[in-house]
Specification:
69 residues
Length: 69
Amino acid sequence: MIEQAFQFLRQHNEVLRRLYDDYRQMVYFRLPVEQLEYYDLRHTPPIVLHANLNDGTVREGFKGSKYSK
């Protein structure tokens, strides 16, 4: 099952196909994540979402010294 998942990841990702000839060459790792920030660069100013996965909260704001929410 894991082997098929690795193959699927490489087959469906153009960047991985360019970087690796075979899915067995890739290195896989896992990190425990408690908090993360996502920057949505489609907007000016960029919108940042801060997610706390422990308590299930998501805060939204703007990045940049010129802007505040």
